[in-house]
Write a structure and sequence with these properties.
single chain, 397 residues, mainly beta, 21-stranded parallel beta sheet, seven-stranded antiparallel beta sheet, 34 strands, 43% strand, globular
């Protein structure tokens, strides 16, 4: 009975999961019969059977809410032989038919969508030359340069983890890459390391994470208009000047400009190939774009995506099950976070500086060719998208 209350509260907390903005994850909890009392949200008493019931409440504590659930089992709902058994384990010996209460407090936390630098459902092959991973924290000045990847090696961290759910015949091929973090596989998976490669944090084979498929968000969206405009001497075929949700029945043709202070969502329903010349996505320094690729192919070359803020959380890429091919090439550099669990991700070429890839990625497979520096922003765990709330502690009261 108590656990039924906990399940309802978790379902209520996660009704809008996955959360693209964790700060708004708990908005509107006073719905579906729940009542707010200060920082506490209470569900109406739920009866199961004749007189058995549970009471449950969510106590807000930032992004670590607590759940308090009390279940009461009545004699009227027990089979004839059960009260004597319950009397042994909980009811007063003088009254074996007394109602049996149980109260549990559960602590929760956000379960980040980007918990490692690079994750995949299947094989990860880091076969390029001079491939490195590491991490930093854009939310901590001790481990960043004003939120950017630090130039000082002493401010860099060794949490550039690489992980795959695959096991048995599938594996992580590190080759000669330098993994400043852990290499994790599914049960019985293998990690192959070349003579000049290393994995600083060691390896294990107990990685097991569910990557839910991406669904295009429901609700009204405006068409992305084709209006050629020039901004600071650069021609753009599309521009988003106002926050909101937009769609395009095709892929991007020409460049897209997202203006300052705009928070936009864009749904693309055709293949997109950004060369970085006359077709690219440019985000002004204070702009944020969530892009849904609902088409088979998305490719980036050179400066195909320019995230002027330098913050990974300001460009989020989501690939639906239709998105099966994702490629970076031609010295592409990228700042953002990619979640495309049905896409094969290939990276070819690589730049001549340290800013090849800043953020995190989740894809079906990964194949690297060339030179890449992959820098995981640990701040994505706190402010990036989330699968929802999960239980971290269970306490009987």
């Amino acid at each position: 009975m108590t656990e039924a209350g906990i399940e309802e509260a978790l379902t209520h907390l996660n009704r809008n999961a996955p959360f693209f903005d964790p700060q708004t994850a708990t908005n509107g909890l006073d719905a579906n019969g729940w009542i707010r009392q200060g920082n506490v949200y209470r569900a109406p008493r739920r009866f199961l059977g004749t007189a058995s019931y549970y009471d449950v409440a969510i106590v807000m504590n930032g992004l670590q809410p607590h759940i308090l659930a009390t279940g009461v089992v009545s004699r009227a709902d027990l089979i004839p032989t059960q009260p004597m058994i319950l009397g042994v384990i909980g009811a007063a010996a003088s009254d074996p038919y007394a109602p049996i209460p149980r109260t549990v407090r559960v602590q929760t936390r956000i379960d980040p969508l980007f918990a490692v630098a690079m994750a995949a459902e299947g094989q990860i092959d880091l076969a390029g030359n001079n491939v490195t991973t590491d991490s930093f924290d854009s939310g901590d000045p001790n481990y960043s340069d004003n939120g950017m990847y630090p130039s000082n090696p002493q401010k860099r961290k060794r949490n550039g983890d690489v992980a795959t759910n695959a096991g048995l015949v599938n594996f992580i091929n590190v080759g000669n890459a330098n993994i400043n973090g852990r290499a994790m596989t599914g049960p019985n998976g293998t990690v192959r390391i070349g003579p000049r490669g290393y994995v600083s944090g060691g390896t294990n084979d107990d990685f097991n994470v569910v990557f839910p498929p991406v669904a295009v968000p429901l609700g009204n969206a405006l068409p992305l208009l084709t209006v050629t405009t020039s901004i600071l001497g650069t021609s753009y075929r599309h521009a988003i000047w106002t926050s909101g949700r937009y769609y395009h029945f095709r892929g991007l043709e020409g460049s897209l400009y997202v203006a300052s202070n705009v928070n936009a969502t864009l749904i693309l329903q055709g293949d997109t190939k950004l060369t970085g010349n006359n077709d690219r996505i440019y985000l002004a320094p204070s702009a944020r774009l969530i892009l849904y690729a609902d088409a088979p192919v998305f490719s980036i070359k050179g400066q195909g995506v320019v995230n002027a803020s330098g913050r990974a959380e300001n460009f989020l890429y989501f690939g639906t099950p239709r998105n099966t091919t994702l490629s970076f090439g031609g010295n592409a550099s990228f700042t953002g976070a990619i979640y495309a669990p049905d896409a094969d991700f290939t990276l070819g070429g690589g730049g001549n500086n340290t800013y090849d890839f800043v953020g995190a990625s989740v894809t079906k497979t990964v194949k690297m060719n060339g030179h890449f520096n992959f820098h995981y922003d640990e701040n994505l765990r706190r402010i990036g998208p989330s699968r929802g709330f999960i239980v971290t502690r269970w306490e009987e009261l």
